[in-house]
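Slide 14.
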Amino acid sequence: VYNKMAAYVSFDNYDTTTGIPANLKADLVYAKKTDVPVTKTVEDEDKATGISETVTYKVNTAIPYGLSEWKFTDTITNAEYVVVPAGEEHAGTVPVQVKIGTKSPETHYATVTELSDTQYEFELDLTSLLSTDSSSSDNGADVELSYQAVVKGLEVNNEIQYDSDHSSDEVKLYTGSIKFTKLGENSEKLANAEFK
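Slide 15: predicted structure.
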Protein backbone atom coordinates (compact mmCIF):
# COMPACT_ATOMS: atom_id res chain seq x y z
CA VAL A 1 0.00 0.00 0.00
CA TYR A 2 1.46 3.35 -1.00
CA ASN A 3 0.74 6.93 0.01
CA LYS A 4 -0.04 9.48 -2.66
CA MET A 5 3.10 11.49 -3.39
CA ALA A 6 4.42 14.40 -5.42
CA ALA A 7 7.75 14.48 -7.25
CA TYR A 8 9.75 17.55 -8.27
CA VAL A 9 10.48 17.66 -12.00
CA SER A 10 13.48 19.69 -13.14
CA PHE A 11 15.24 20.41 -16.41
CA ASP A 12 18.86 20.05 -17.50
CA ASN A 13 18.98 23.36 -19.33
CA TYR A 14 16.96 26.10 -21.00
CA ASP A 15 17.09 27.57 -24.47
CA THR A 16 19.01 30.84 -24.00
CA THR A 17 16.97 32.75 -26.57
CA THR A 18 13.44 31.57 -25.78
CA GLY A 19 13.82 30.50 -22.13
CA ILE A 20 11.98 27.29 -22.90
CA PRO A 21 13.27 24.17 -21.07
CA ALA A 22 15.23 21.87 -23.35
CA ASN A 23 15.52 18.54 -21.57
CA LEU A 24 13.90 16.92 -18.56
CA LYS A 25 16.42 15.94 -15.94
CA ALA A 26 16.44 12.20 -15.12
CA ASP A 27 15.96 11.49 -11.43
CA LEU A 28 14.79 8.74 -9.09
CA VAL A 29 11.75 8.95 -6.83
CA TYR A 30 11.58 6.56 -3.86
CA ALA A 31 8.09 5.57 -2.80
CA LYS A 32 7.51 5.05 0.90
CA LYS A 33 5.14 2.25 1.86
CA THR A 34 2.39 2.88 4.38
CA ASP A 35 2.27 0.44 7.27
CA VAL A 36 -0.11 -2.52 7.01
CA PRO A 37 -1.15 -3.11 10.63
CA VAL A 38 -2.29 -6.47 12.01
CA THR A 39 -4.68 -6.05 14.94
CA LYS A 40 -6.37 -8.82 16.89
CA THR A 41 -9.38 -8.74 19.19
CA VAL A 42 -11.51 -11.31 20.98
CA GLU A 43 -15.28 -11.04 21.23
CA ASP A 44 -15.28 -10.87 25.02
CA GLU A 45 -15.36 -7.29 26.31
CA ASP A 46 -14.17 -7.94 29.87
CA LYS A 47 -11.54 -10.54 28.78
CA ALA A 48 -12.93 -12.91 31.43
CA THR A 49 -14.13 -16.32 30.33
CA GLY A 50 -14.70 -19.85 31.60
CA ILE A 51 -13.08 -23.22 31.03
CA SER A 52 -14.61 -25.02 28.00
CA GLU A 53 -16.14 -21.77 26.71
CA THR A 54 -15.84 -21.11 22.96
CA VAL A 55 -14.47 -17.67 22.05
CA THR A 56 -14.21 -15.91 18.68
CA TYR A 57 -11.03 -14.12 17.59
CA LYS A 58 -10.95 -11.43 14.89
CA VAL A 59 -7.92 -10.16 13.00
CA ASN A 60 -7.95 -6.96 10.93
CA THR A 61 -5.33 -6.13 8.31
CA ALA A 62 -5.09 -5.21 4.61
CA ILE A 63 -3.98 -7.04 1.49
CA PRO A 64 -0.33 -6.09 0.87
CA TYR A 65 1.13 -5.54 -2.59
CA GLY A 66 4.49 -6.81 -3.78
CA LEU A 67 4.69 -10.01 -1.70
CA SER A 68 5.30 -13.41 -3.28
CA GLU A 69 3.50 -15.23 -0.44
CA TRP A 70 1.11 -14.29 2.34
CA LYS A 71 0.97 -16.86 5.15
CA PHE A 72 -0.31 -16.18 8.66
CA THR A 73 0.99 -18.04 11.70
CA ASP A 74 -1.26 -18.00 14.77
CA THR A 75 -0.12 -19.28 18.17
CA ILE A 76 -2.47 -20.00 21.07
CA THR A 77 -1.70 -21.14 24.62
CA ASN A 78 -4.14 -22.81 27.05
CA ALA A 79 -6.85 -23.19 24.41
CA GLU A 80 -7.59 -25.41 21.44
CA TYR A 81 -8.73 -24.25 18.02
CA VAL A 82 -12.19 -25.29 16.88
CA VAL A 83 -11.46 -27.62 13.96
CA VAL A 84 -13.51 -29.38 11.28
CA PRO A 85 -14.73 -32.72 12.75
CA ALA A 86 -13.23 -36.05 11.66
CA GLY A 87 -14.91 -37.63 8.64
CA GLU A 88 -15.70 -34.29 7.00
CA GLU A 89 -13.82 -32.57 4.21
CA HIS A 90 -10.88 -30.53 5.62
CA ALA A 91 -11.06 -32.56 8.87
CA GLY A 92 -8.63 -31.36 11.55
CA THR A 93 -8.15 -27.89 10.03
CA VAL A 94 -9.30 -24.56 11.44
CA PRO A 95 -12.06 -22.94 9.36
CA VAL A 96 -11.20 -19.23 9.07
CA GLN A 97 -13.73 -16.76 7.72
CA VAL A 98 -11.96 -14.28 5.42
CA LYS A 99 -13.83 -11.08 4.51
CA ILE A 100 -12.29 -8.70 1.95
CA GLY A 101 -13.69 -5.18 1.99
CA THR A 102 -17.48 -5.34 1.57
CA LYS A 103 -17.46 -8.77 -0.11
CA SER A 104 -19.13 -11.78 1.50
CA PRO A 105 -16.84 -13.83 3.77
CA GLU A 106 -15.23 -16.98 2.34
CA THR A 107 -13.95 -19.94 4.34
CA HIS A 108 -10.25 -20.80 4.16
CA TYR A 109 -8.69 -23.68 6.07
CA ALA A 110 -5.61 -23.50 8.29
CA THR A 111 -3.42 -26.48 9.19
CA VAL A 112 -2.81 -27.08 12.91
CA THR A 113 0.40 -28.13 14.66
CA GLU A 114 0.56 -29.16 18.33
CA LEU A 115 3.61 -27.44 19.86
CA SER A 116 3.06 -28.81 23.40
CA ASP A 117 0.27 -30.04 25.67
CA THR A 118 -0.94 -26.48 26.11
CA GLN A 119 0.17 -24.69 22.93
CA TYR A 120 -1.03 -24.95 19.33
CA GLU A 121 -0.23 -23.15 16.10
CA PHE A 122 -2.02 -22.83 12.79
CA GLU A 123 -0.77 -21.69 9.39
CA LEU A 124 -3.20 -19.95 7.06
CA ASP A 125 -2.01 -19.54 3.46
CA LEU A 126 -3.69 -16.56 1.79
CA THR A 127 -1.18 -16.23 -1.06
CA SER A 128 -4.02 -16.81 -3.55
CA LEU A 129 -5.48 -13.42 -2.52
CA LEU A 130 -2.37 -11.53 -3.68
CA SER A 131 -2.36 -9.91 -7.10
CA THR A 132 0.59 -9.12 -9.36
CA ASP A 133 -1.59 -6.51 -11.06
CA SER A 134 -0.81 -3.16 -9.43
CA SER A 135 -4.23 -1.82 -10.49
CA SER A 136 -6.18 -4.63 -8.79
CA SER A 137 -8.98 -3.26 -6.62
CA ASP A 138 -8.10 -5.78 -3.89
CA ASN A 139 -4.61 -4.34 -3.30
CA GLY A 140 -4.76 -2.50 0.02
CA ALA A 141 -8.33 -3.69 0.69
CA ASP A 142 -9.34 -4.23 4.32
CA VAL A 143 -9.35 -7.87 5.43
CA GLU A 144 -11.03 -9.41 8.47
CA LEU A 145 -10.22 -12.95 9.61
CA SER A 146 -12.29 -14.73 12.25
CA TYR A 147 -12.00 -18.15 13.89
CA GLN A 148 -12.85 -19.86 17.18
CA ALA A 149 -11.06 -21.58 20.05
CA VAL A 150 -12.12 -23.44 23.20
CA VAL A 151 -10.64 -22.25 26.52
CA LYS A 152 -8.67 -24.96 28.37
CA GLY A 153 -6.58 -23.08 30.95
CA LEU A 154 -6.58 -20.23 33.46
CA GLU A 155 -4.92 -17.71 31.10
CA VAL A 156 -5.22 -17.86 27.32
CA ASN A 157 -2.60 -16.10 25.17
CA ASN A 158 -3.00 -15.63 21.43
CA GLU A 159 -1.13 -13.73 18.70
CA ILE A 160 -0.83 -13.81 14.91
CA GLN A 161 1.70 -12.63 12.31
CA TYR A 162 2.55 -12.96 8.64
CA ASP A 163 6.18 -11.87 8.98
CA SER A 164 8.46 -10.43 11.65
CA ASP A 165 7.34 -6.86 10.86
CA HIS A 166 3.61 -7.58 10.77
CA SER A 167 2.28 -9.14 13.94
CA SER A 168 -0.52 -8.46 16.38
CA ASP A 169 -0.16 -7.64 20.03
CA GLU A 170 -0.77 -10.60 22.30
CA VAL A 171 -4.43 -10.96 23.27
CA LYS A 172 -5.07 -12.42 26.73
CA LEU A 173 -8.15 -13.98 28.29
CA TYR A 174 -8.54 -14.99 31.92
CA THR A 175 -10.71 -17.52 33.72
CA GLY A 176 -11.65 -17.38 37.37
CA SER A 177 -13.10 -19.54 40.12
CA ILE A 178 -15.11 -18.96 43.27
CA LYS A 179 -14.70 -21.01 46.44
CA PHE A 180 -17.64 -21.20 48.87
CA THR A 181 -17.08 -22.18 52.52
CA LYS A 182 -20.04 -22.75 54.84
CA LEU A 183 -19.34 -21.32 58.31
CA GLY A 184 -21.16 -21.80 61.60
CA GLU A 185 -20.87 -20.00 64.92
CA ASN A 186 -17.60 -18.19 65.58
CA SER A 187 -16.86 -18.47 61.84
CA GLU A 188 -15.88 -22.11 62.18
CA LYS A 189 -16.19 -24.39 59.17
CA LEU A 190 -19.23 -26.66 59.34
CA ALA A 191 -18.47 -30.36 59.04
CA ASN A 192 -20.19 -32.21 56.17
CA ALA A 193 -21.66 -28.96 54.80
CA GLU A 194 -23.47 -29.28 51.46
CA PHE A 195 -24.60 -26.82 48.83
CA LYS A 196 -27.45 -26.96 46.35
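Speaker note: The mean pLDDT is 87.
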